[in-house]
Specification:
The protein is α+β, with helices and mostly antiparallel strands. It is 35% helix and 28% strand.
Length: 373
């Protein structure tokens, strides 16, 4: 009789199994995109990831007949619960072989843990914040995976639904052809602000120019993302940590900011799609993985949108369109041909309208689930 054992992650060896298990589960899937493993070691390090300071957590591994078969993490984000007046736990970083007994054992353990902590509901997949991969992909498996997005097999959603989980909210991913010429609506907005001395479009050519703005950009994100599901405002330590984590892979050309009266009003961050290089590197920077990733940066024709925001008091002034126009201009000069929106909440009508304005089409869908416990 097959035996399933659930073990908590307690040692560095356990953590290594937790981090690298998906690579084994998806070993037959040539399109599976690994994470950048150097980031994974930081993400799951309770000393280096400052989010652990205000989150309870549990990390579990499942073994069938002594062999690793699945993993899951449970999180209680106490700051988010306090802000939203909720008693919700989260499950995240869930992966499993196609075996309902394994997934049931993992999910049940997280539910039991959450109940002992006084929680009333579990949602997920949802990590420390919405900056971690969230949801389970349910549509669009024929399209390539991208960085920081869920990257699962089609059966995973079925395993979760078998446990009584239902839809909480979906996220969508658009792909759009980058137009050869900027849309007329963008041109009209640009023409209105070109002669405004109090308006300033900020562009960057190197990381030295960018570095002084990064923390301010993340503060704008804090100020504007409060109503986005799953978002928790970053602490000062987390801002520094996030900036340090992403600075090496950011391309300053594809970061735009906008200031009004010398105050930062909005920003947008994009980057060339490095997925092909990450796949060749197998998620490892060394000994030669960084070469594949750098090549992907220079050869990519797909622009991946990561973050963007405009402060509430400046909305409706066309700032999003201005920054969008500047991103398209840079993308065209860089011979980019397609643009990937990354994940957008299905009810974020303002952001979805921007991609539909340039004839973007939804190609992938991801689902965050919920269950009362």
């Amino acid at each position: 009789m097959n035996k399933i054992e659930i073990r908590p992650v307690r040692s560095r060896r356990d953590l290594k199994n937790f981090i690298f298990l998906p690579e084994k589960i998806h070993s037959e899937n040539k399109n599976w995109l690994p994470p950048l493993y150097s980031d994974e070691w930081i993400l799951f390090n309770t000393s280096k990831n400052k989010s652990f300071e205000y989150c309870d957590h549990i990390m579990l591994l499942a073994f069938r007949d002594g062999k690793p078969a699945g993993r899951i993490m449970g999180i209680i984000n106490k700051r988010y619960n306090d802000l939203k007046n909720e008693n919700h736990a989260r499950f995240c970083f869930f992966d499993s072989i196609n075996d309902p007994e394994v997934s049931n054992a993992l999910i049940s353990k997280v539910e039991e843990w959450a109940i002992t902590k006084g929680m009333e509901k579990i949602v997920g997949p949802l990590g420390f914040s919405d900056k971690d991969p969230q949801g389970i992909q349910i549509e669009g498996f024929e399209y390539p995976s991208v960085l920081s997005a869920p990257n699962n097999e089609p059966y995973l959603s079925q395993l979760v639904e078998r446990e009584g989980y239902t839809k909480k909210v979906d996220l969508v991913d658009y792909i759009a052809e980058i137009p050869e010429d900027i849309p007329e609506v963008y041109k009209r907005v640009l023409s209105r602000v070109e002669n405004r001395p109090d308006y300033r479009i900020i562009e960057f050519s190197n990381k030295k120019e960018l570095k002084p703005y990064i923390i301010d950009v993340l503060q704008v994100m804090n100020d504007t993302y409060s109503n986005i599901y799953g978002f928790v405002p970053l602490t000062d330590k987390e801002k520094e940590e996030l900036a340090k984590r992403y600075m090496p892979i950011l391309d300053p050309r594809f970061i735009k900011a906008f200031a009004i009266d010398k105050k930062l009003a909005g920003f947008v961050i994009a980057m060339p799609d490095i997925a092909p290089g990450l796949m060749k590197a197998r998620g490892r920077l060394f000994p030669f993985g960084f070469i594949h990733i750098l090549r992907a940066v220079h050869r990519s024709t797909n622009l991946l949108m990561l973050l963007g925001a405009v402060k509430e008091e400046y909305r409706g002034m066309g700032i999003d369109a201005i920054m969008g126009a500047k991103i398209l201009e840079t993308a065209t000069r860089s011979r980019m041909t397609t643009l990937d929106s990354h994940l957008i909440l299905e009810n974020n009508t303002r952001m979805r309208a921007e991609y539909e304005r340039i004839r973007g089409r939804v190609v992938k869908r991801y689902r965050i689930y919920q269950k009362d416990i």
